[in-house]
Design a protein that fits this description.
- The protein is α/β, with parallel strands linked by helices.
- The protein has one domain (4-123, 184-254): 3-Layer(aba) Sandwich (Rossmann fold), CATH 3.40.50.
- 39% of the residues lie in helices and 18% in strands.
- It has helices at residues 38-44, 67-81, 93-104, 135-143, 154-164, 167-182, 209-218, 234-237, 239-254, and strands at residues 7-10, 13-18, 23-27, 49-53, 86-91, 109-115, 196-201, 222-227.
- An eight-stranded mixed sheet has the order 1-2-4-3-5-6-7-8, sandwiched between helices.
- α1 crosses α9 (239-254), α2 crosses α3 (93-104) and α4 crosses α5.
- It starts with 6 loop residues before the first strand and ends with a helix.
Length: 255
């Protein structure tokens, strides 16, 4: 694996750490992995300290498989690493976890970056869960995540296929998705006082544009940036544009 030298395992934590400077903690989504953020890790670790904790999506007891438990785990990780004044960057479920953490430990969070974040509304898997045994059906469902279906590579389809065909993983994914839908944060957003950057695909069908607009309207200090011809995972589909927006915004907030 490309990042093998940067992966650390300590206590119950496994994480990637690369670079030095202001700390950006990257939180992946429900089907997320390090590979989703390759370009973010490569670009930003040249002038920032990038940390990507691997979330225990499939290993928590089923009763604790919830967005709240995942946030508890990340808060514990932040304390364990002694992190302070951090930027939390989350995609999809990772954005939701970032929001809960920022609400609970605002003194440790300098800024928030959300892209395709859940927390208000999400249309998980286009409204229905994939039939496990049918790879082509699964491919169509994954393609919905992106504006350009070509981003749903064979490798990505195989990765998700393996996950949904593992019964233990599948029931945890369903539990986590339901928990995220139930845990609506609309009433909490006015409490956030740190700056937030929203980077959204104009063609996101999982957390549609109106979700970004609601986040923007309710977060007291937010900027909303659109990426055209882009679905739910902007950092994968348009990495160059995503990184440019993030770099410019973060530089202005750290100046």
């Amino acid at each position: 694996m490309k990042y093998q030298d940067y992966i650390k395992k300590e206590k119950e934590f496994e994480y990637l750490e690369k670079g030095e400077g202001h700390t950006i903690v990257v939180l992946h989504g429900l089907f997320g992995a390090l590979s989703n953020f390759e370009d973010v890790i490569d670009d930003f670790s040249t002038k920032y300290r990038v940390i990507v904790p691997i979330m225990p999506l499939y290993t928590l007891p089923l009763i604790k498989t919830s967005v709240g438990s995942m946030a508890k785990y990340i808060k514990k990780f932040i304390t364990y690493k002694g992190l302070d004044n951090i930027t939390l960057l989350g995609n999809s479920l990772g954005g939701h976890v970032a929001l809960i953490c920022a609400l609970d430990i605002p003194e440790k969070v300098h800024s928030l970056v959300l892209t395709g974040s859940s927390g208000l509304y999400e249309n998980a898997f286009g409204g229905s869960f994939p039939r496990r045994e049918d790879k082509e059906y699964l491919r169509k469902k994954i393609e919905v995540t992106f504006y350009d279906p070509a981003v749903a590579t064979d490798e990505l389809v195989d990765e998700v296929y393996k996950i949904v065909n593992d019964r233990n993983k599948l029931i945890r994914i369903l539990a986590m998705a339901k928990s995220a839908i139930r845990h609506n944060m609309a009433k909490d957003l006015q409490k956030f006082n740190m700056p937030a950057c929203l980077i959204w695909g104009k063609n996101d069908s999982v957390t549609p544009p109106e979700v970004a607009e609601e986040f923007h309207a309710k977060l007291p200090d937010s900027e909303l940036h659109w990426i055209d011809k882009c679905g739910h995972a902007a950092m994968m589909e348009h990495p160059h544009e995503f990184n440019e927006i993030l770099d410019k915004w973060l530089s202005s907030k750290l100046a």
